[in-house]
Amino acid sequence: MTGGGAKKKAAEAKPSAAVDKKKTGAPFGLLAVAWFVPGIGHWILGKKRRAVVFGVVIVCAFVTGVLLDGELGTPKPGNPFSWLAAFACLGNGILYIGRLLWLNGFGDLLGGIPFDLLGGGSPSAAGFAYGNTFLYTAGLMNLLTVLDVSDIARGEKD
Amino acid sequence: MDHLLLLLWHAFLVSAFFAFLWRTTTPGRLKLFLKTLVIMVIGGFLLGWLMFPFP
């Protein structure tokens, strides 16, 4: 009887532990790292194949966008939609920051926030629009991986 | 610059991404990858032709 009672208590304890994990949320540091380096969040959680695929896909999309002379989204005065483009591209994490550093230099990068940043690209290039699309897609995919990391860390998904 | 190649490349990257995001088994991933790839490529063609009459 006591063994059955102990088993019953353990079974009752399990759902509340799972609920507690969901309530507390994923660690902020993990999500920040997952945003900063595409794929690394999944690597930390042990989902190595997914980490490699996500990292390769996002980097390939970003590099394709740069090679097609796409412009990194940066805020522009009087253009509210530019903030959406900037948000999408910011999703690329270190790729976005690295590219901005490459284009602006460290001093001009800090002093240029938010409206004086160079986004690179060439509007007259044949692949300009495609390049932009690849850059935005890469950033948004990385943001989705951050959400996925959060779900996995909270136990809502395998 | 080859438009078709860029369409295929973009479709490939996005399809691979969502296959690994939304499925955890290899057969499931392959099935979703092919499904989204075909939909994106054919959909791209269809949209292109639908927009053709418009300037």
Please provide the ordered H/E string of secondary-structure elements of chain A: HHHHHHHH
**Measured distance between first and last alpha carbons of chain B:** 22 Å
Distance between the termini of chain A: 35 Å
Q: Return the structural class of chain A.
A: mainly alpha
**How many helices of chain B in DSSP terms?**
2
Mean pLDDT figure of chain B: 95
Helix content of chain A: over 70%
If you had to describe this structure to a student in words, what would you say it looks like?
The complex is a heterodimer of chains A (about 160) and B (about 55). The longest helix of chain A is centred in the C-terminal third of the chain and has 26 residues, at about 130-155. In chain A, α2 (about 30-35) runs antiparallel to α8, α4 packs antiparallel against α8 and α6 (about 95-105) packs across α7 (about 105-110). Chain A contains 8 helices and no strands. In chain A, about 35% of the residues are buried. Chain A has helices spanning about 1-25, 30-35, 40-45, 50-65, 80-90, 95-105, 105-110, 130-155. The two termini of chain A are about 35 Å apart. Chain A is elongated and about 75 Å long. Chain A is an all-alpha fold and about 160 residues long. Chain B is built from 2 helices and no strands. With about 55 residues, chain B is mostly helical.
